Amino acid sequence: MGKSAASRRDFVRAAMRAPYLERDEEHELAIRWRDDRDQAALHRLTAAHMRLVIAIAARFRNFGLPMGDLIQEGHVGLLEAAARFEPDREVRFSTYATWWIRASIQDYILRNWSIVRGGTSSSQKALFFNLRRLRARLAQSLDQRPRQAVFTEIATALGVTPADVELMDSRLSGPDTSLNAPIYESETDAANRQDYLVDSVPLPDERVGEAIDRERRLTWLGSALNVLNERELRIVRERRLQDDGATLEALGESLGISKERVRQIENRALDKLREALLREHPDRASFVS
Predict the structure, then answer these.
(1) Whole-angstrom distance, CA of residue 77 vs CA of residue 105
(2) Which DSSP string do the residues of the chain spell out, in sequence order?
(3) Which of 14, 48, 197, 206 has its CA 20 to 30 A from that of 223?
Protein backbone atom coordinates (compact mmCIF):
# COMPACT_ATOMS: atom_id res chain seq x y z
CA MET A 1 0.00 0.00 0.00
CA GLY A 2 3.00 2.28 0.31
CA LYS A 3 1.87 3.66 3.70
CA SER A 4 3.73 3.98 6.98
CA ALA A 5 2.85 1.69 9.85
CA ALA A 6 1.01 4.52 11.62
CA SER A 7 -1.08 5.47 8.60
CA ARG A 8 -1.89 1.80 8.02
CA ARG A 9 -3.13 1.49 11.57
CA ASP A 10 -5.28 4.58 11.05
CA PHE A 11 -6.68 3.01 7.89
CA VAL A 12 -7.55 -0.21 9.72
CA ARG A 13 -9.21 1.73 12.57
CA ALA A 14 -11.26 3.73 10.08
CA ALA A 15 -12.32 0.56 8.31
CA MET A 16 -13.37 -1.05 11.56
CA ARG A 17 -15.41 2.02 12.53
CA ALA A 18 -17.34 2.07 9.25
CA PRO A 19 -21.05 1.45 9.97
CA TYR A 20 -22.67 -1.83 9.01
CA LEU A 21 -25.30 -1.76 6.31
CA GLU A 22 -28.81 -3.04 6.80
CA ARG A 23 -30.04 -5.46 4.14
CA ASP A 24 -32.36 -2.89 2.52
CA GLU A 25 -29.70 -0.20 2.44
CA GLU A 26 -27.15 -2.61 1.00
CA HIS A 27 -29.63 -3.67 -1.68
CA GLU A 28 -30.34 -0.04 -2.60
CA LEU A 29 -26.63 0.83 -2.88
CA ALA A 30 -25.94 -2.25 -5.02
CA ILE A 31 -28.76 -1.32 -7.42
CA ARG A 32 -27.55 2.29 -7.67
CA TRP A 33 -24.07 1.07 -8.54
CA ARG A 34 -25.26 -1.59 -10.99
CA ASP A 35 -27.81 0.56 -12.83
CA ASP A 36 -26.44 4.11 -12.52
CA ARG A 37 -22.74 3.54 -11.83
CA ASP A 38 -23.12 5.76 -8.78
CA GLN A 39 -19.58 6.14 -7.38
CA ALA A 40 -20.85 7.34 -4.00
CA ALA A 41 -22.94 4.16 -3.68
CA LEU A 42 -19.91 2.03 -4.58
CA HIS A 43 -17.78 3.81 -1.99
CA ARG A 44 -20.31 3.27 0.80
CA LEU A 45 -20.81 -0.37 -0.19
CA THR A 46 -17.10 -1.20 -0.23
CA ALA A 47 -16.19 0.94 2.78
CA ALA A 48 -18.72 -0.97 4.89
CA HIS A 49 -17.01 -4.23 3.94
CA MET A 50 -13.34 -3.29 4.37
CA ARG A 51 -13.39 -4.92 7.82
CA LEU A 52 -14.22 -8.16 5.96
CA VAL A 53 -11.18 -7.63 3.70
CA ILE A 54 -8.94 -7.06 6.74
CA ALA A 55 -10.28 -10.14 8.53
CA ILE A 56 -9.67 -12.38 5.51
CA ALA A 57 -6.23 -10.89 4.86
CA ALA A 58 -5.25 -11.60 8.47
CA ARG A 59 -5.79 -15.32 7.88
CA PHE A 60 -2.91 -15.27 5.39
CA ARG A 61 -0.41 -13.18 7.36
CA ASN A 62 1.78 -16.24 8.09
CA PHE A 63 2.92 -16.47 4.47
CA GLY A 64 5.48 -13.74 5.10
CA LEU A 65 4.03 -11.05 2.83
CA PRO A 66 3.24 -7.48 3.98
CA MET A 67 -0.17 -7.18 5.58
CA GLY A 68 -0.77 -3.93 3.71
CA ASP A 69 -0.28 -5.69 0.38
CA LEU A 70 -2.66 -8.48 1.37
CA ILE A 71 -5.32 -5.90 2.30
CA GLN A 72 -4.78 -4.07 -0.97
CA GLU A 73 -5.23 -7.27 -2.98
CA GLY A 74 -8.30 -8.09 -0.93
CA HIS A 75 -9.71 -4.67 -1.81
CA VAL A 76 -9.19 -5.50 -5.49
CA GLY A 77 -11.27 -8.63 -4.93
CA LEU A 78 -13.92 -6.57 -3.14
CA LEU A 79 -14.21 -4.22 -6.12
CA GLU A 80 -14.45 -7.20 -8.46
CA ALA A 81 -17.27 -8.59 -6.34
CA ALA A 82 -19.07 -5.25 -6.49
CA ALA A 83 -18.76 -5.23 -10.28
CA ARG A 84 -20.30 -8.70 -10.55
CA PHE A 85 -22.84 -8.64 -7.73
CA GLU A 86 -26.51 -9.20 -8.63
CA PRO A 87 -28.63 -7.67 -5.83
CA ASP A 88 -31.85 -9.27 -7.10
CA ARG A 89 -30.63 -12.74 -6.08
CA GLU A 90 -31.34 -11.97 -2.42
CA VAL A 91 -27.81 -12.87 -1.29
CA ARG A 92 -25.98 -10.64 1.15
CA PHE A 93 -23.06 -8.84 -0.43
CA SER A 94 -20.64 -10.02 2.25
CA THR A 95 -21.42 -13.66 1.43
CA TYR A 96 -20.78 -13.09 -2.25
CA ALA A 97 -17.69 -10.90 -1.76
CA THR A 98 -15.92 -13.33 0.56
CA TRP A 99 -15.01 -15.68 -2.32
CA TRP A 100 -13.64 -12.87 -4.51
CA ILE A 101 -11.61 -11.34 -1.67
CA ARG A 102 -10.07 -14.67 -0.71
CA ALA A 103 -9.35 -15.60 -4.35
CA SER A 104 -7.62 -12.28 -5.00
CA ILE A 105 -5.42 -12.62 -1.92
CA GLN A 106 -4.55 -16.22 -2.72
CA ASP A 107 -3.59 -15.36 -6.29
CA TYR A 108 -1.32 -12.61 -4.97
CA ILE A 109 0.35 -14.99 -2.55
CA LEU A 110 0.93 -17.59 -5.25
CA ARG A 111 2.51 -14.94 -7.50
CA ASN A 112 4.77 -13.47 -4.82
CA TRP A 113 5.46 -16.10 -2.17
CA SER A 114 8.27 -17.64 -4.20
CA ILE A 115 10.37 -16.67 -7.22
CA VAL A 116 9.39 -20.09 -8.58
CA ARG A 117 5.82 -20.08 -9.83
CA GLY A 118 3.57 -22.58 -8.09
CA GLY A 119 0.62 -24.39 -9.61
CA THR A 120 -2.49 -22.41 -10.44
CA SER A 121 -5.07 -25.19 -10.78
CA SER A 122 -7.76 -25.45 -8.12
CA SER A 123 -6.28 -28.67 -6.70
CA GLN A 124 -2.78 -27.19 -6.52
CA LYS A 125 -4.10 -24.07 -4.81
CA ALA A 126 -5.92 -26.22 -2.26
CA LEU A 127 -2.71 -28.15 -1.66
CA PHE A 128 -0.64 -24.99 -1.22
CA PHE A 129 -3.00 -23.33 1.25
CA ASN A 130 -4.01 -26.42 3.24
CA LEU A 131 -0.81 -28.46 3.39
CA ARG A 132 0.64 -26.63 6.37
CA ARG A 133 -2.54 -27.00 8.39
CA LEU A 134 -2.92 -30.70 7.62
CA ARG A 135 0.78 -31.34 8.11
CA ALA A 136 0.66 -29.72 11.54
CA ARG A 137 -2.40 -31.77 12.47
CA LEU A 138 -0.64 -34.99 11.47
CA ALA A 139 2.81 -34.01 12.75
CA GLN A 140 2.43 -35.90 16.02
CA SER A 141 1.84 -39.13 14.10
CA LEU A 142 5.00 -38.93 11.99
CA ASP A 143 6.93 -40.86 14.63
CA GLN A 144 4.45 -43.73 14.51
CA ARG A 145 3.82 -43.89 10.74
CA PRO A 146 5.97 -43.70 7.62
CA ARG A 147 6.16 -40.27 6.03
CA GLN A 148 4.66 -41.64 2.81
CA ALA A 149 1.56 -42.79 4.70
CA VAL A 150 1.01 -39.24 5.96
CA PHE A 151 1.43 -37.88 2.42
CA THR A 152 -1.13 -40.40 1.19
CA GLU A 153 -3.65 -39.33 3.85
CA ILE A 154 -3.20 -35.65 2.97
CA ALA A 155 -3.50 -36.46 -0.75
CA THR A 156 -6.78 -38.28 -0.14
CA ALA A 157 -8.17 -35.36 1.89
CA LEU A 158 -7.31 -32.81 -0.82
CA GLY A 159 -7.97 -34.90 -3.92
CA VAL A 160 -4.40 -34.83 -5.27
CA THR A 161 -1.66 -37.44 -5.70
CA PRO A 162 0.87 -38.32 -2.96
CA ALA A 163 3.61 -37.21 -5.37
CA ASP A 164 2.02 -33.74 -5.54
CA VAL A 165 1.94 -33.57 -1.74
CA GLU A 166 5.58 -34.62 -1.45
CA LEU A 167 6.65 -32.03 -4.04
CA MET A 168 4.72 -29.21 -2.36
CA ASP A 169 6.04 -30.27 1.04
CA SER A 170 9.60 -29.97 -0.20
CA ARG A 171 8.83 -26.50 -1.62
CA LEU A 172 7.30 -25.30 1.64
CA SER A 173 10.09 -26.77 3.76
CA GLY A 174 12.92 -24.61 2.46
CA PRO A 175 13.58 -21.16 1.01
CA ASP A 176 14.32 -20.39 -2.62
CA THR A 177 17.96 -20.78 -3.61
CA SER A 178 19.59 -18.70 -6.30
CA LEU A 179 21.36 -20.52 -9.13
CA ASN A 180 24.11 -17.97 -8.63
CA ALA A 181 24.62 -19.00 -5.01
CA PRO A 182 28.27 -20.04 -4.57
CA ILE A 183 29.09 -23.65 -3.81
CA TYR A 184 32.71 -22.89 -2.98
CA GLU A 185 35.10 -19.99 -3.34
CA SER A 186 38.87 -19.75 -3.19
CA GLU A 187 41.52 -17.24 -4.13
CA THR A 188 41.95 -18.81 -7.56
CA ASP A 189 38.63 -20.46 -8.31
CA ALA A 190 34.91 -20.31 -7.59
CA ALA A 191 31.77 -22.19 -8.62
CA ASN A 192 28.05 -21.66 -8.26
CA ARG A 193 25.04 -23.90 -8.64
CA GLN A 194 24.31 -23.11 -12.28
CA ASP A 195 27.81 -24.36 -13.23
CA TYR A 196 26.62 -27.90 -12.47
CA LEU A 197 23.30 -27.80 -14.31
CA VAL A 198 23.12 -30.35 -17.10
CA ASP A 199 21.41 -29.31 -20.34
CA SER A 200 20.08 -32.30 -22.27
CA VAL A 201 19.21 -30.18 -25.34
CA PRO A 202 21.54 -30.82 -28.31
CA LEU A 203 24.17 -28.19 -29.05
CA PRO A 204 23.36 -25.61 -31.76
CA ASP A 205 25.71 -27.21 -34.29
CA GLU A 206 24.11 -30.61 -33.63
CA ARG A 207 20.61 -29.19 -34.18
CA VAL A 208 21.69 -27.56 -37.43
CA GLY A 209 23.34 -30.78 -38.61
CA GLU A 210 20.20 -32.79 -37.82
CA ALA A 211 18.01 -30.29 -39.70
CA ILE A 212 20.26 -30.45 -42.75
CA ASP A 213 20.32 -34.25 -42.69
CA ARG A 214 16.52 -34.40 -42.32
CA GLU A 215 15.99 -32.08 -45.28
CA ARG A 216 18.49 -34.06 -47.37
CA ARG A 217 16.74 -37.36 -46.59
CA LEU A 218 13.35 -35.92 -47.50
CA THR A 219 14.77 -34.77 -50.84
CA TRP A 220 16.22 -38.22 -51.53
CA LEU A 221 12.95 -39.91 -50.59
CA GLY A 222 10.86 -37.56 -52.72
CA SER A 223 13.06 -38.34 -55.72
CA ALA A 224 12.98 -42.10 -55.13
CA LEU A 225 9.16 -42.15 -54.89
CA ASN A 226 9.03 -41.32 -58.60
CA VAL A 227 9.97 -44.94 -59.43
CA LEU A 228 6.67 -46.23 -57.99
CA ASN A 229 3.46 -46.60 -59.94
CA GLU A 230 0.25 -45.01 -58.74
CA ARG A 231 -0.97 -47.94 -56.64
CA GLU A 232 2.44 -48.58 -55.07
CA LEU A 233 2.79 -44.90 -54.24
CA ARG A 234 -0.63 -44.79 -52.57
CA ILE A 235 0.11 -47.86 -50.46
CA VAL A 236 3.51 -46.57 -49.34
CA ARG A 237 2.12 -43.12 -48.52
CA GLU A 238 -0.83 -44.43 -46.50
CA ARG A 239 1.09 -47.23 -44.81
CA ARG A 240 4.51 -45.67 -44.18
CA LEU A 241 4.40 -41.89 -44.56
CA GLN A 242 1.53 -41.01 -42.23
CA ASP A 243 1.49 -40.77 -38.44
CA ASP A 244 -1.43 -43.23 -38.25
CA GLY A 245 -0.67 -45.72 -40.98
CA ALA A 246 -3.59 -47.44 -42.65
CA THR A 247 -4.10 -51.16 -41.99
CA LEU A 248 -3.72 -53.83 -44.66
CA GLU A 249 -7.42 -54.60 -44.34
CA ALA A 250 -8.49 -50.96 -44.82
CA LEU A 251 -6.29 -50.48 -47.86
CA GLY A 252 -7.41 -53.80 -49.32
CA GLU A 253 -11.06 -52.79 -49.06
CA SER A 254 -10.31 -49.37 -50.58
CA LEU A 255 -8.37 -50.86 -53.51
CA GLY A 256 -10.63 -53.87 -53.99
CA ILE A 257 -7.88 -56.43 -53.32
CA SER A 258 -6.99 -58.76 -50.47
CA LYS A 259 -4.81 -57.65 -47.57
CA GLU A 260 -2.22 -60.24 -48.60
CA ARG A 261 -2.04 -58.63 -52.04
CA VAL A 262 -1.57 -55.22 -50.38
CA ARG A 263 1.32 -56.64 -48.34
CA GLN A 264 2.95 -58.04 -51.49
CA ILE A 265 2.67 -54.73 -53.33
CA GLU A 266 4.02 -52.87 -50.32
CA ASN A 267 7.08 -55.14 -50.06
CA ARG A 268 7.74 -54.81 -53.78
CA ALA A 269 7.44 -51.01 -53.58
CA LEU A 270 9.86 -50.86 -50.64
CA ASP A 271 12.38 -52.97 -52.57
CA LYS A 272 12.10 -50.59 -55.54
CA LEU A 273 12.68 -47.62 -53.22
CA ARG A 274 15.80 -49.20 -51.73
CA GLU A 275 17.21 -49.94 -55.17
CA ALA A 276 16.53 -46.39 -56.36
CA LEU A 277 18.10 -44.82 -53.28
CA LEU A 278 21.21 -47.03 -53.44
CA ARG A 279 21.57 -46.38 -57.14
CA GLU A 280 21.61 -42.63 -56.57
CA HIS A 281 23.46 -42.67 -53.22
CA PRO A 282 25.53 -45.88 -52.87
CA ASP A 283 27.45 -44.43 -49.92
CA ARG A 284 24.25 -44.06 -47.85
CA ALA A 285 23.33 -47.70 -47.37
CA SER A 286 22.54 -47.11 -43.68
CA PHE A 287 19.72 -44.77 -44.66
CA VAL A 288 17.83 -47.51 -46.52
CA SER A 289 18.62 -50.47 -44.26
Answers:
(1) 8
(2) ----HHHHHHHHHHHHHSPP--HHHHHHHHHHHHHH--HHHHHHHHHTTHHHHHHHHHTTGGGSS-HHHHHHHHHHHHHHHHHH--GGG---HHHHHHHHHHHHHHHHHHHHS-SS----SHHHHHHHHHHHHHHHHHGGGTTTS-HHHHHHHHHHHHTS-HHHHHHHHHHHHS----TT-EEEE-SS-EEEGGGG----SPPHHHHHHHHHHHHHHHHHHHHHGGGS-HHHHHHHHHHHSSSSPPPHHHHHHHHTS-HHHHHHHHHHHHHHHHHHHHHH-TT-GGGG-
(3) 206
Q: Which of 75, 44, 45 is nearest to 57 (CA)?
A: 75
Q: Residue 84: name the closest of 56, 76, 69 by CA.
A: 76
